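User:
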Amino acid sequence: MAFERVAVVGAGAWGTALANVAARAGRSVTLIARTETSAAAIDARRENPRLPGIMLEPGIVVSGSHELAANADMVLLVVPAQSVRTTLTTLRLPREIPVVVCAKGIEQGTGAFMTEVIADEMPHVRPAILSGPSFAAEVGRGLPAAVTLAAADESLARDLGQALGLPTFRVYHASDVRGVEIGGATKNVFAIAAGMVAGRKLGASAAAALTTRGFAELVRFGRALGASADTLMGLSGLGDLILTCSSAQSRNYSYGVALAQGAAPPAGKLAEGSFTAFALVTMAQRKGVDMPIASAVAAVIDGKLSVDAAIESLLTRPFRAEGV
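Assistant: Predicted structure:
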């Protein structure tokens, strides 16, 4: 399929950036905001206040009607992970079309990954996942980035990637859906830890150690859930972890800095890792996977440990062989 018509459900920064990508790739794009009022405001200026300074590509239709998603050949679901299920209930997709979730997280309460949520709510559609090291502002401006798009049917993932791909937005395809979801969800938690390290001014050496050992936890967790090592080492795993653990552009990193400094989290910027941490640790415990960094982050967020106590708990762990 050519996937000529793309509906982007969710007009936040990332949804707007992906709408621009799809339009630049020659697709007919509808960007669907939460309300008609929000849609009208974006359309009037042809600029989203959540992505300031970046104009919408010509031809993008902006609407607050979720019913328009039913006319698309492909739906990009770009809403927060904890809102995926409720958003799906607002859509009426009468035919078997691909729904590509672009959120990175694990659902609280159920412990479900995002494609599992889609399968629960819309068993007739074809779920896929898009993830990788990418900041909305950079992608929106057309700066180079590379991501992974995975679906159980790899030929579908390839076709979807070709429909969205650009020289400046390289889309690699894969069939390891769970591996891609694990990388995207877990890296957010480790980015919070990296922000704590920065907020406490522990230095570049500590930041490198944190990122490396965080990756070891990501790999252990991924293996326990059957993810491919190649996926975990790829863009959606190691690549995204490096990006989000090293830049204040990352909402999760900035959230960790705020926690470490006793400040309020950045206003209007959702840190997905703050919701994923407990679900991740709970799942890891059930699988018998040791994840001390993720557990420390969850304990800080839940108010069970101070940042200093969490750091001390990690620094005083017994010495051991480095193996993953």
